[in-house]
Design goal:
This protein has eight helices and twelve strands. The protein is an alpha/beta fold and 226 residues long. Strand 11 and strand 12 form a beta hairpin. 28% of the residues are buried.
């Protein structure tokens, strides 16, 4: 669980973020303007800040610079602006991550966990929840809709890595590097076979996916059933 400060002027988006993060056991506080957000940051010292760039009183990039002058709190920028140079400038300006709207709630939750791990490697990682899947890295257990799954060590590592990137397409090259420790590539067949075994244990198939979705020519994505 993390204490999350949401600096977002759109009331509908604020409400949706609060609902999604509360469902994942985070505590939240919200600010509709840049200056109110900065005051909340100083007063409450949250674990992570979600920052919109299009604020009514001050551009989010200017607020980011002000935040960095007083705090090293992880900042994830949430913005509809998707131009590459602009994203790079925001990251160079001190943001820890950048998500383009719209995005999946599980993807945001994974990004929050990731920036918190980087900020505090000693912080214990809690279970990852994606739909009816609950993946506990410390206990190395996976529960699907209340039933404990019997996974091999490599199947667990594969599923956990995909869950950490829930909602994102992950390439086979990345899976080989991160799960099989083959940074210079290896046999794609290895990934395909383990995905096949994993799908069977999740009660699905490549032709009828529920959680594991193949993106042809790119990779695979773990996402909750609609």
């Amino acid at each position: 669980m993390a204490d999350v400060l949401i600096i977002e002027d759109d009331a509908t988006i604020r409400t949706a973020l609060v609902r999604a993060l509360s469902a994942r056991e985070h505590s939240t506080m919200t600010s509709p303007t840049a200056l109110d957000g900065l005051q909340s940051l100083v007063a409450h010292r949250p674990d992570v800040v979600l920052l919109d760039l299009g604020l009514p009183d001050l551009d989010g990039t200017a607020l980011l610079a002000m935040i960095r002058s007083v705090s090293d709190v992880p900042v994830i920028v949430l913005s509809a602006r998707d131009d590459g140079p602009g994203i790079v400038a925001v990251l160079d300006g001190g943001a820890d991550d950048y998500l383009v709207k719209p995005f999946a709630a599980d993807q945001l939750d994974a990004r929050i966990r990731a920036v918190l791990r980087r900020a505090d490697p000693a912080r214990p990682a809690g279970p990852v929840t994606v739909g009816g899947l609950v993946i506990d890295a410390r206990a190395r257990t996976v529960v699907l809709d209340g039933t404990v799954l019997d996974l091999s060590p490599k199947e667990f590592d594969l599923l956990h890595h995909l869950a950490e990137r829930a909602g994102e397409v992950v390439s086979k090259r990345e899976l080989l590097a991160k799960v099989w420790n083959q940074p210079y590539g290896g046999a794609d067949k290895t990934v395909d076979v383990h995905l096949h075994w994993l799908r069977r244990k999740l009660g699905e198939s490549a032709d009828a996916p529920r959680y594991l979705h193949r993106v042809r020519g790119v990779g695979v994505k773990l996402a909750p059933p609609p």
